[in-house]
Amino acid sequence: MDSISSLVGLVDFGRFASQWVSVLVEATLKGLVVLAIAGLVTTAMRSASAAARHAVWALALGSILALPLFSALLPNWELGIFPAIEVEGSSAVVAPAQTSTADGSVVQAVNVLPAGTGLSPDVSATAVSPATRSVLSPVIAPRVAAIETASTLGVFAVPIAIVWGLGALLVLGMLLTGLMRTSFIANRALPVLESEWVRMSDRLRRRLGIRRPVVLLRNEAATTPATWGVFNPIVLLPAVSDGWSLERRRDVLVHELAHVKRLDFLTQIIGRYACAVFWFNPFMWLAARQMRVERERACDDEVLRAGTKPSEYAGHLLEIARSVKSFSAASFSSVAMAQRSQLSGRLLAILEDGRHRGPLSRGGTVIAFTIAFMFFVPLASMTTITAQMPQEAVAVDGVVAPDVANVANGTSVISQSVPVDEPTPTPMSRPVLAGESQKLQWASAPGCYEADRDSESRGINENSSNDRRTSRFWDGDCEGEVRIRGEVQFTPDYTGIRSVSRDGHFSIEIDMDGDSRRVELRADGRGLQRRWFVNGSESTYGSEAEEWLPRALQDFFRHSSFDIDGRVRFILTNGGVPGLLAQAEQSHGEYLARRFYVAAIETREIDPDQVAAILRRAMRTVTSDFEMARLLRAIHGDDLRDENLRRTYIQASNTIGSDFEKARVLRALLEQEGLQTDVVQMLLESAHDIGSDFELARLLTAIGTRYLDDPTARDSYLSATRSIASDFELQRVLASLLEAENLSTENLRLLLMSGRSIQSDFESARLLMNVAGKFVVEESLRRLFFESVDGIGSDFERQRVLTTLVNRDDISNDVVSDAIRSASAIGGDFAKATVLKAIADKYRSDTTLRSQLEAAAETISSDHEYGRVMSAIRGRRS
Known about the structure:
By secondary structure, the protein is of the alpha+beta class. A 7-stranded antiparallel beta sheet has the order 12-13-14-17-18-19-20, with helices on one face. The chain has a 5-stranded mixed beta sheet with strand order 4-5-7-6-8, with helices on both faces. Strands 2-3-11-10 form a 4-stranded antiparallel beta sheet. A hairpin with a 2-residue loop joins strand 17 and strand 18.
């Protein structure tokens, strides 16, 4: 009895294994389609941001992971890829039979009988004729095919399922080990309570829009910074982080908080689960690795958008990777910052100039999910097993009536009635016009370059390797492709091909609303061979091709940067500046337009009014921060002496969203001497939109004190400094002002007012010590200065400021009196005594100050410190 039960259990497991292997094979095939599409999409998006490419890979892996579940839940439809498996040798018998219905009509039936049931089919399985097989319809065949497939897989399904399960358990075990490891580290790590870290983390978290609480931990073991968790994220810092500079601390926190904002830990886990289910598919591991690469680059971009200089951030990243060990659990259960295997590619991406670094917008995310859903649902419900279509049919009253009846003995009878003597419909073919009609139709059709410039459906994808180049461009309903192999020489006016190198090739094809034309040129021993194709069919190369080729090349060059330097020289030589401006207007591409505009500006043949007109045009058409910044920086300093152009210049800079590019453009303007007050006012108002503390600080430092004597500019400057959230950067800006010669009392007052917004005791003390060491605290500044001193909470930092002040020889008794009063409020006896002793050593002979010193000494609790101060007051050695 036990042996029978074991056999039954083995049969049940075999059936389950067969079903699961079938589902796994189906999901793997669909997954390959998804990965191929994701690879093509990300390749086409090479110029897009890393955040966008990461979203594509994350959606692809998440979709593949959900494929088996949705394939089981959604109704299936067939895609004819794989034919049904032959019945011979299977464990089921398919027998045809003819039965009659009540009205006397004949129905062709197929009886599917399980082998070993003891039932005899009407005919032997080996006697099934092709005519009988052909009666299987799209309704019947999937069921028969499923039985046949399961029976074929049954022999190998159990070992395949066992091997798959062991592999999946191994990968999941690695993931579980990593999660346990991170949990162990979190329990052993200590919370980071230092005020600098906490304030910086809170400020950056608010700036990034993260509402979830983020816990900062520090591990005594040397590890790289890492992040994990979704609802309660954790940022782990290495023990060496205590010695990091403020810039490095900020960069690390921005990078790790970017992971939290983007939910990178969730996509990491999704990718790991996908690799666990499809561990045997090497493309799955490659996709997961590429997703991790784009993830780190997206967070690097977040750091650079925050204003960090690329070279400085690259140095921080390299130093962190070299100085700390690899986090053992990072690869599977957390998001680590500096994995050495990815470092070289990341450094190149960080230092690459002109790379798009924008985040994925909320609208872009919705669109991406919508497109993925529209593609995923039909793919999940698709089945790749198809049936043979009927070649013969049996008439039953001219009606198609499929039916399935379950007979009492367990035999399934599947019947299908198909009408006969009906002509088989043929697919409608597209009408082909006569050659002359096609020629007229094409001649009247607009070219790609005449399409609507505001069309969102426009782009170009260019690839080159060795001696091969491929360019694909699209513009509304127009699509084009150019393929080049070897060296191609165009005619001087770029309207034809002069020569192609031996064994070289050139082809250009343009499709307008489904109507395509193509010219191919090949060079061989016989010379240049020309071919002409219309809608895929070759025609004689003649006048029609000769008329079409210049227009097609014009379409190509108005989208492509191919030989842009040569084209600029040709247009400038033959058309001058008007030709360059006209070409810029007709070019579909911000890079091309900028190249032509810059070439026109660099000729120095146009006046500032014309340059301003170019900028106004660019403000309407150029959306790339990089291209707009390059255009603005190309304007010569002599032209910027024109006030009208300066104003237009600042207006154009306001269209730049990148803090780095905008700050560079405004600093270039500041290099001009004699800016009028209203221009400086516009510049400072423009600086308000710079979100990066680093870039804003650099800009304000460049302004210095040159324009602060004007009240309006001074107020705008003060307002701009209040936009700096970083205490370090604000202190740096104000300290740079102290280096100016002949700093007025009003400017010094402005500086102290700005310094009051510094929250860090250390940075506030640095600024006040700088002031106290370089300037006499005059009566008009005394109250403001000591209000700033009293705002320092640290006893040590306040002691440093007051000691620096009282060590001067040119301060008034009123200033000394205020210093005594401020020292009395210090809570620590040692710091208080140090300041009072320094004052007593210099001013104990002043009766008024002496009595004030003695009163202050009475507030000291420590007998030792009290004695030290009183000895100094009375002139005795302590």
